[in-house]
Design goal:
The protein has 285 residues and is an alpha/beta fold. It has one domain. It contains 7 helices and 10 strands. The strands form 2 sheets. A 6-stranded mixed sheet has the order 4-7-6-8-10-9, sandwiched between helices. Strand 2 and strand 3 form a beta hairpin. The protein starts with 26 loop residues before the first helix and ends with a strand.
Length: 285
């Protein structure tokens, strides 16, 4: 304790003030990092991948990070168009994979040998699945909300070839064709194909190492757009898996029944029409 001279009339100095209290937990961390707030938060599959009609613009629903509130996971949802190169990138799984199994993509040499077998009309080739699949739950998976996942069966039809009266109130839309094609499509059995992907976890598991690991893929098939969207909602939100690709075919005309060339459909309602070539596989994507 400091000693002060006892001089008459002299007042000892005041003690120094106490030190300030420590900052509450998390304050320093919050000052160094800006908290992230996703642009959109959803709670249902319908809000996760909403319906997209032909006349609507993509500007309001561009690619962005979406928070799935019930599962507390952020997902990067993309809305760009699908092209032939995207289909060819996943055709190997659509043609030769079984559902609910994980696969690694075959090498180019392996894929060429498969095509050789197909051209010689050998028995359909079936891929060998991973015997010990360890799919990683990604922190922020990607989900591709393609046309197959967002186009409704009652989509608007603008090009009328039957001479119907077009309603001026909705420029270019033929309501008669829309209703006719919608009814035909509702009575047509469809197959919605989803390709999910993630990384194969190392064995033994090393935290962080899976980000440079091998990609693995799984094929899921559903009978309706709503069921496919629900599968994507759960796979991305709960399991943390990517929705890498999706397309729609007509049941009985898919790769399990036919082995001919692939014919791309520009509109979903075209799958309700009958195909003259009984060996062609029609695909909407």
């Amino acid at each position: 304790m400091p000693q002060f001279l006892n001089i008459p009339g002299m007042v000892p100095p005041r003690p120094p003030p106490p030190p300030p209290p420590p900052p509450p937990p998390g304050t320093i961390h919050s000052l160094l990092e800006t908290p992230f707030h996703p642009e959109l938060e959803v709670e249902t599959p319908a809000a996760f991948m909403p319906v997209q009609y032909s006349g609507e613009s993509f500007l309001d629903i561009a690619s962005r990070v979406t928070r799935i509130a019930p599962f507390r996971r952020s997902v990067f949802v993309t809305r760009h168009h699908v092209h032939a190169a995207d289909f060819e990138e996943h055709e190997w799984l659509l043609k030769h994979g079984s559902t609910e199994l994980w696969y690694e993509k075959p090498s180019k040499a392996h894929l060429r040998s498969i095509k050789t077998l197909e051209s010689n009309r050998w028995a359909p080739y079936e891929l060998l699945p991973l015997l010990n699949a360890r799919p990683v739950s990604l922190e922020t998976p990607k989900a591709w909300a393609s046309a197959a996942m967002t186009t409704p069966t009652d989509d608007d039809i603008y090009d009328c070839t039957s001479g119907h009266t077009v309603d001026d109130g909705y420029a270019g839309t033929c309501h008669q064709c829309t209703d006719d094609k919608s009814e035909a499509l509702e009575s047509t059995p469809l197959v919605y194909c989803l390709v999910m992907s993630t990384c194969q976890a190392s064995d033994p598991f090393i935290h962080g190492a899976h980000f440079n690991g091998r990609q693995i893929y799984k094929l899921i098939k559903c009978g309706s757009r709503e069921a496919a969207v629900a599968e994507a909602f759960y796979a991305a939100g709960v399991n943390g898996w990517n929705i890498a690709f999706s397309c729609t075919m007509r049941l009985g005309e898919d790769f399990e029944e036919r082995s001919g060339k692939v014919k791309k459909m520009d509109e979903l309602w075209m799958l309700a029409d009958e195909e003259e070539d009984k060996n062609v596989v029609r695909v909407f994507y």
